[in-house]
Amino acid sequence: MPFSAYIAHFIAAAIMTNGIPHFVSGVCGRSFRTPFVRMTGKPVSPPVVNVVWGWVNFLIAFLIFANIGPLYIGTPGDTIFVAAGMLVMGVILAMIFGKREA
User: Fold this and answer.
1) How far does the chain reach from its first CA to its final CA, in angstroms?
2) Backbone φ/ψ region at 94: left (φ over 0), alpha (ψ -120 to 50), beta
3) At 88, phi and psi to the nearest 5?
């Protein structure tokens, strides 16, 4: 598999990981920050917006996974790049949202 497919899998995993807190917060009925708060001037977006934004992130990740070479979880290259994408985005999100909560 070309190296560009591994990079695409890394990016798709990061996008998918970004969708998780938005989708879960929305489904739980909690408001949460989205990129749309800058347009509204409010500090957080309502739960429905978060569900939709999380779903859009999942859709984008799925389209990348489905269209950029096959994804074989269990093979070393795919597993490492997907796990690394999730870890990197998870750490970035923890740092961003941790600062906002403090």
Assistant:
1) 43
2) alpha
3) -60, -50
d(CA 13, CA 6): 11
Global pTM reads: 0.86
**pLDDT by residue (tens digit) across 46-99?**
999 999 999 999 999 999 988 887 778 788 888 999 999 999 999 999 998 887
How many other C-beta atoms can be found within 10 angstroms of the C-beta atom of residue 66?
A: 11
Distance CA(34)–CA(30), nearest Å, equals: 12
Q: Rounded distance, CA 58 to CA 76, Å?
A: 23
Q: Which residue in the block uniquely carries the two structure tokens 């598999």?
A: 1
Q: Are 8 and 85 in contact (CB under 8 A)?
A: no
